[in-house]
Sequence to fold (87 residues):
Amino acid sequence: MLISGGEIAVFASRCGGERFWHPACFVCTTCEELLVDLIYFYRDGQLFCGRHHAELVKPRCAACDEVSWHISLHENVFLICKSIIFI
Fold:
């Protein structure tokens, strides 16, 4: 939907100078959370909330739901939050 003159629009500087959204359309690509008053990320032409952008970089830990900087893989065994999960 095009933005007409006089309408309220979101300008997101990280997305380039010619990109504008209706406030209701400025949402996370993954979860559709409104991003108007939140920190947003722009990657490969898509908008993301902080949670889903982090998941693009690292998966979440199944035990604690934190971004899995602490997962190590050794012979199909993930060591997660001091728990061992066999896969």
Summary: The helical segments are 50-57. DSSP finds one helix and seven strands in the chain. Residues 10-86 form a domain with the Cysteine Rich Protein fold (CATH 2.10.110).
